[in-house]
Amino acid sequence: MESGTDLRPKEMGYLTPSSASAMSDDKDSKINGTGYSSEAHMNTIAQPVPHEKNAEKDTALTGSNEKANEHSSDEEDTTEYPSGTKLFCIVLALVLAIFLVSLDMTIIATAIPKITDDFGGLADVSWYGSAFFLTNGGFQSSWGKAYKFFALKPTFLLSILIFEIGSLICGVAPNSLCLIIGRAITGLGGAGIGTGAYTIIAFVTEPSKRAMYTGFVGISYGVAAVLGPLIGGAFAEKASWRWCFYINLPVGGISALIILITFHAPSGSKPVAATWREKLLHMDPVGVALIMGAIVSYILALQKGGQTEAWDNGEVIGLLVGFAVILVVFGVWEFFQGERAMIVPRLFKQRLIGVSCAYTFFFSGPYFLVIYYLPIYFQSVDNVSPTISGVYNLPLIISVTISMILSGIFVSKTGLTAPIEVLGAAFATIGAGLLYTLDVGTGTGKWIGYQIIGGVGWGAAIQLPIIVSQGSVDPMDISTATAIVICKSS
């Protein structure tokens, strides 16, 4: 592709693995709203290549994929996308669902003191947040496979149901253990909602407008994460911490009802045909168990190291070694599973998938650290209430929101994502570094300005890896690629 070529939205299309390889050497190539593209590969759907060691056991599945691809190739140009009120309702439902998932990640940050007062102890505090992230991250890829092998609509509704059940358990929890179990169930449902929402967006919006609508969902995600401590603090102070979870029930119900009434899965999202045994194997239960074991070992090591035990304590060292060993075993297992792996090795042959995963891993991590850090700073250093500490986070909320909107418009109009990702990373790095300098007596103008700088960076680019990864694979792999990228941000 000639340097400087402008890929307008009308030219956006899917990418074949061969074209991805050829284009990866062109450093001046531009990324459109859904990934790299060229006119020569406009209407070509990628063909999955089974892992050599799994060629025989995946033959039947590959055959069904070929038929699905042929069908989607024939109909790609005639795809009808929902519009008007119907599209608005679908996007609204997805925004509400993502809002709840993101809210649940941070809402208990300011409510934990009240929770520990009720349950009488600090021993389990670290698990109130970790239990959610454990299942949310561990099951992302499994949900991605579920959306590939099962109908999109009922699978998404199932994820909302699981999320609601977990929220109810948290709300009525009589003790700390019950709350932790509820948080784990909520995280499991939240993983399905996250993957499902971005997958649905990819199927119901035109490629030229996908960045904009993904941005709307992203705004909900970013704003809810920052609002979480504010809402949690308000509930803890004015009502009860249990409302941090009860709030999910009516809002989640509304989202599910809207999807039930207005969303009809497009032809391109038809599930891949396979036997029930094959579907179960593609869920990769062994891989899930391994990654969960690795994460638990890591969390326990951090919980004990430097807290209840010294870092050179045998138990802490054993947990860290166990984490590393299990992670290696997981990697080997995934490699030999091929198409059945929760993280499909084939997808990483496309450079943009690996780059998107690495980018979101290093980009999203500091964002959540800042979200947890700021309320603690304002409450402990400035000695303000949980509610006021949430108000002090408004500069971050506003800058993230505005930046996401402008970023989505820019990508939709120009087809460029790489410049935004570079600038976003630069602003986020500078902002995070400045926020690290906050201390006793830091002036109001500084902590407001620092939040704005970081918010501009995070808001501009935090959703772009999902858009790029979706555009670099064929339709049947969209849910899997989406899940892999989201998993790295968890």
TrEMBL record:
Ranges of compositional bias, category Basic and acidic residues: 1-11, 50-59
The UniProt keyword set, sorted, is: Membrane, Transmembrane, Transmembrane helix, Transport
- Region (Disordered) residue ranges read 1-81
Q: Which GO terms describe its cellular component?
A: plasma membrane
Q: Name one Pfam family in it.
A: MFS_1
What sequence ranges are listed for the domain Major facilitator superfamily (MFS) profile?
90-490
Transmembrane spans: 87-113, 155-174, 180-204, 211-231, 243-265, 286-304, 316-336, 357-378, 390-411, 418-436, 448-468
**Polar residues composition-biased segments:** 31-46
Membrane topology per record: Multi-pass membrane protein
InterPro entries from the UniProt entry = MFS (IPR011701), MFS_dom (IPR020846), MFS_trans_sf (IPR036259)
Asked whether the keyword Repeat is assigned, the reply is no
Superkingdom to which the source organism belongs: Eukaryota
MF (Gene Ontology)? transmembrane transporter activity
Q: What are the subcellular locations of this protein?
A: Membrane
Tagged with keyword Transit peptide: no
PANTHER family, alphabetically? MAJOR FACILITATOR SUPERFAMILY, MAJOR FACILITATOR SUPERFAMILY (MFS) PROFILE DOMAIN-CONTAINING PROTEIN-RELATED
> What protein name does the entry list?
Major facilitator superfamily domain-containing protein
